[in-house]
Specification:
about 60% helix; alpha/beta; 6-stranded mixed sheet; 6 strands; globular; 22 helices
């Protein structure tokens, strides 16, 4: 079988596995929150640029098909495209064998295959345009003497990078890495007018982010800059989480291969053009290194550095392709894929069938600390909450259709899995840093009026007491009705439904 056919088979098999996973588990707290982006499109959002919202609109056919699978279809399709792009880049840099190994390494990455390959996150479109930008840059530096094609690739890089930034602002590291490459190794490009046209195109594409922030007092940057400021002392826990999280997310076997590759690179044992080595290192190490540095002082998330590792996987593929077929190192690539498949299906089994909770077991905080509950059977609560609402209507206790929460999580789950299918009005009332994009979304929804009643819904694994939060906002807050959820025959989580009467303001 040719390498091209092997890549096609790999893409097909990986896509089937991703579809099974997407069907098997519910949306996570971040995913369900991003669904709200798609409900009312904006040029930018409190947390991220808008491309994830557009992706959801595309794969749900403008929100006509809003099942979890169609919401996640975008990342699945983009992961297939990314796998082929990795093959094409590896083939361009070295040969088809290197391209096939690059595709295998990409598929075995938890970040690439699951976080950005199944879950509907800004990382999904970001990673696609990141790899596409790498594709254009590799072609740009491979045949620099062909001015016409080089200028075309410069323009395409500018457009692709702009779209990457419109997915997630980390895309600016593409220009950071390429800028370093130009300044250190190829200053001749500074005299090429198409380079500045490329920069201008990127700025033009990302200009909606600026305009939205001007209208909203630069709220995105005042909020997020506070999160990553480095004036609060050393934070070793964050650094440890960033380092070992990166190791886990990129697959421990892949991480080991990358380390070996970097050593081989240092010893000049990778048989490809030096320009390609320089480019791939500059398109990876700055992002990874800067995030590790920032994590020394402030909390970061390990998946932020994920795009940077794709360039290192390409470098690793080129190194592995020269090793003998019976060498142990190339064989590890296959074990890396076996590992991710095993971890994925083990995760589905634990999430769906583990008896009880992996978190706290006391009644008041049942399930707290159990990350699997984010994606576990939120549909169950829809029927149970509807029973409470219909009972109160039948008893003429209240006829309200309002549900309130004070945070984006679990508010987004309650909104999308309970309020929306039951045609209830969900409103988030709380601090901006707690409700995030609901501050804007509320403006498109029916507002709660003075004297209205409302239900406040919370869960034991992320409990917030309305008697503390809304004591000055309602005349009366009744004792909650408790809905107990089971998994594997044992209690896993409680949902508490409070009826709050007489909204004051």
């Amino acid at each position: 079988m040719s390498f091209k056919n092997k890549v096609a088979s790999l893409i097909l098999l990986a896509t089937i596995v991703r579809c099974i996973i997407a069907f098997s588990i519910g949306l996570g707290n971040d995913e369900v929150y991003y669904v709200n982006y798609a409900q009312h499109l904006q040029w930018n959002y409190f947390d991220h640029p808008p491309l994830v919202a557009l992706l959801i609109r595309l794969t749900t056919f403008n929100l006509m098909l809003t099942s979890d699978f169609f919401i996640r279809l975008g990342p699945i399709l983009l992961a297939a495209a990314n796998t082929y792009l990795m093959y094409a880049i590896g083939k361009k840099i070295k040969d088809e064998k290197a391209g096939f190994i690059a595709a295998l390494l990409y598929t075995s990455s938890i970040y690439a295959s699951i976080i950005a390959g199944i879950f509907i996150m800004p990382d999904a479109p970001q990673l696609f345009f990141w790899i596409l930008s790498l594709y254009f840059l590799v072609h740009l530096i491979t045949n620099p003497e062909n001015k016409k094609k080089s200028n075309l690739y410069l323009i395409l890089f500018g457009l692709s990078t702009g779209l990457c930034v419109m997915s997630k602002v980390h895309g600016v590291f593409l220009w950071f890495g390429f800028g370093l490459y130009i300044l250190i190794y190829n200053r001749k490009l500074l005299s090429n007018g198409y380079l500045y046209l490329s920069v201008l195109l990127t700025l033009l594409v990302i200009s909606p982010i600026l305009f939205w922030n001007i209208e909203n007092n630069f709220i995105t940057y005042t909020f997020h800059s506070n999160r990553v400021s480095i004036n609060r002392g050393i934070n070793p826990n964050s650094f440890i989480r960033e380092f070992f999280g990166g190791l886990a997310y990129n697959n421990p076997i892949n991480y080991f291969i990358v380390i070996i590759t970097l050593v081989a690179c240092w010893k000049r044992r990778i048989n490809i053009q030096i320009n390609h080595i320089r480019l791939l290192l500059l398109m990876s190490l700055p992002l990874i290194g800067i995030l590790l540095f920032v994590s020394l002082f402030r909390d970061t998330l390990p998946h932020w550095s994920g795009p940077g590792f794709t360039a290192l996987l390409l470098l690793a593929a080129c190194y592995l392709s020269d090793l003998k077929i019976n060498s142990r190192l190339p064989q590890l690539v296959y074990y890396a894929n076996y590992l991710i498949v095993g971890v994925s299906f083990l995760g589905i089994l634990v999430l769906s069938f583990y008896p009880g909770t992996l978190g706290k077991t006391d009644e008041t905080s049942l399930g707290k600390g159990d990350v699997t509950l984010d994606m576990y059977d939120w549909d169950f609560f829809k029927t149970e909450v509807n029973k409470i609402i219909q009972k109160n209507k039948l008893e003429k206790k209240t006829n309200t259709n309002f549900i309130i929460n004070n945070k984006w999580f679990p508010g987004a789950h309650i909104d999308n899995y309970i309020a929306a299918p039951l045609h209830l009005n969900f409103v988030a009332i709380g601090k901006l840093e707690d409700i995030h994009t609901y501050h804007w979304l509320n403006q498109f929804r029916k507002p709660i009026q003075k004297g209205d009643n409302a239900y406040y819904i919370t869960v034991s694994n992320n409990f917030s007491d309305p008697n503390e939060i809304y004591k000055d906002d309602f005349e009366k807050i009744n004792s909650p009705v408790i809905i107990k959820q089971y998994r594997g025959g044992k209690p896993v989580r409680n949902m508490l439904v409070y009826l709050m009467e007489g909204f004051k303001n």
